[in-house]
Known about the structure:
single chain
Amino acid sequence: EDHACQVWLDGKRPNSVVFTIFGSLVKLTSEQLAELDWVLASSGYEFLRVIRSDQQAMGATGATTIVLPLEFLAETEGRGCVTSWCLQEAVLWHKALGAFLTHCGWNSTLESVCAGVPMLCWPFGADQQTNSRMACTEWRVGVELSEDPGREEVEAAIQQVMGGGRGEELRR
């Protein structure tokens, strides 16, 4: 187990970090991954981004590596942590977490609700649409994104949750 992201979170202010991970089954397209990277860069917030090994580039040795554009790395220097693994439940309970951009799988949804972290809900399939709808309309702990949200929509949702009263309302 690699606890580097936990150590990174320890140095952050309460409710200041956007966390994003998409479970073990969701497969984002390269375009969606690039858009997500630039949303995180342009949001201005600190972020923890988990990119699973099956979403990474294959290196010459056959090992997977996280490949991010140099422009993205320059834009986010000092405010982003990108890793291929984390202990999700421990991250969600960390005081630094301000929002969770999630696919709304059942485990992610339950862990986020229990930890009191507002969700930015981007469901893909199976039970995820139902979980998203429950989180956003019934339990009022999340903001629902469209099926294939653009950069502006995701950034607006991050600003809404991280930037003020809506985030506090969702935490309550």
